[in-house]
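User: My collaborator sent over this chain with a note saying "see what the structure looks like." That's all I know about it. Can you take a look?
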Amino acid sequence: MEFPKHHSDIGIDPINEKNKILTGKDFFVIWSSLGVGLLVISAGSFIYTSNILGALFVIILGSVVGSILLGLAGKIGSDHSIPSIVSMRPSFGIYGSYLLTILNVLQLIGWATFEITILSKAASIFTQGYINFYIWSIIFGIITIIFGVSGPLGIIKQWLNKFAVWIVYGSTIIMLINLIFFSGHHYTNLISTNNNNFDFFNSLDLVIVMPLSWLPLVADYNRFSQNSKNAFLGTFIGFSITNTLFYLIGVLLGINDVFKILFAIQTFFYGFILLILIVDEIDNVFADIFSSAMSFKNIFNKINYKYLVIIFTAVSCILSNIIPINQYESFLLIIGALFTPIFAIVLIDYYIIKRGKISIDLFYDKCAKFKISAFSSFFIGSLTYFIISPISPIHVQSLNIGSTIPSMTVSIISFLSIEYILKKVKLKKIATKRKR
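Assistant: Without extra context I'll predict from the sequence alone. Here is the result:
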């Protein structure tokens, strides 16, 4: 489905009723699809694995918690028909959201670069090197541009809903059956021991951070919903399922290196499954690029998003040929350190302080310029995450409760405390003026 001509540019203003056409099933489909990824399998190899039931518990718990947060962030978009970056404005202010725009565009281009690299490598393996990595990166760049300029509605309705996601579920089941019943016979030389010593809570962080990594773009798609409640449920259920399944595949396969995962799938899971995953992975690149354009339009809304899609895709393709993929788990934890406190503040502000009752003007004309309370809390929460995470240079992990829970708790307490103090100061000033 295409936008009418007068809506050919999708911007940051609320979309009209005509384009609010996505159902709960549509969101189940899109977030099931976006929960799939070869990089998720890699992350799964770092999960705490004293026994498979323990690992499964960590995966399910992390997927549920992360997907609830994802659904709640998306609900702000579906409540007001606004993109993700605009949903942050009441908490951080308009100028504050500009700083978040820069952070978000950088991380989304980073994700797109990862995805194009993996896609190009996988396709090169599938074609046995007859078409090299460089050519494939150009091919996937062109496909991404075509998807991107078409907009999300056509991709969801015509591509994911009717085709892509269902064959992915089928291939996932095949991989799990092979791993569960035949892993002891076939994968001895490929399976690597987890030497990263990720304990229970750090493993939980690693699972939660995957849905958290989608928080800065979830509303870019959920804003097109017919009904906020159905959008929340579809998002929560869809992402929970595939995130759980692919982390479990990662635990069972036990391979950290993404490229070794590609060879394992090609060799032992039949080549057509690798092809299916390549086909599905394209929508992840589309989502990253489209949302980077939506974020950038928060500052420069007059630029047509189609031009931004072309520019950001080209940048990602170039970077995929320059930057090697390593320390992927560190990249995930850095994203967690940045966006966990941001959305802890956004969600607590919207659902607790404002109780979900906020006029559309507060996202635009009547929005504050800059919220010192939010940015102070963001800094404190992010610093907390960095200090007690496995990537901390000072290795402060004595609490053994991971990084996500402390970071969110510190951010929320700090934000509520500063808001309370500022409110008291404001009331005192008003009272003083009245006495005069």
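A starting point for your reply to your collaborator: The chain has 17 helices and no strands.
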